[in-house]
Amino acid sequence: MKAKKILLIAGLTLLGLLFAGLGLVYSCIIQALHDFSFFSKAVLHPRISTKEKYAVEPVKGVKKVSLFIPCPDGSKMHAWLFKKPGADKLIIVNHGAGGNLIGRSYIAIRAAQANCSSLLYDYRGYAQSTGAFNLDSILEDGLTVYDYAHKDLGYPADKIIECGESIGSAVAAQTTAARPCAGLLVLCGVSTLPVAVKHIFPLFRLFPDSSFAQTKIDNPTTMKSVHVPVLFVHGMRDEQVPYQSSQANFAAAAEPKKLVLLPGCGHDDLGAFDGELFQKSINDFVSSLK
Predict the structure, then answer these.
(1) How many domains does the chain have?
(2) Is 20 a domain residue?
(3) Beta 76-82 vs 64-70: how paired, if at all?
């Protein structure tokens, strides 16, 4: 009996230590997630590409022009301008969290097929852009690029279409809410960051939304301040941002609006499948902007 009592006490002690350890780990994770700097670096992950990849001409028949856009803090953002002959509209591409502008050439190709020029750029701290990045600075970068396109490149507001991919949808949406433009194109857009993080890492569903660092990224709320036509496009096989996020953004947006779900596409292969539907959706959207 004495031995059993000792084993019971030892077992309860170990169980208590286990729960205490788990509680400590849980607390440490919450503390890390709540740290804005840590959360920014965890979400945003730029990639440096080889020199050879910058030498490509991805858009057939449209020469790319490499630019460096000055920022108020003295930094410069690297950009590619694809000015299609005869096209009067410009699509500004605010890309997603990872990689760099090279991986968004597919949007420039689709834009040219819709008879639009396009401006791709990298946020501060990404690839060839200088400066530092965080979840607030990318929102500022969207405004800087818009102002450059409007004032320096000479595009009238009613000829500028904002495009946001994934987390870049928040950049494009907030720019559209703050600056006049012709329309907003949202590709695989997030709703809020906690929703996206919990979709990618199901374990984080154990944590309430309040555990995550507070950011200005809240597309359903922002969409209420957007007063131009909006096209939402999302792949139904998206493994990073659930297509329900676009449904939530669509529900919050004002008319005129349209939601197109691509049944064969995921997050990083948008248009690689269902290509005709993808292109037609963009063509029809651009044509509707009078």
Answers:
(1) 1
(2) no
(3) antiparallel
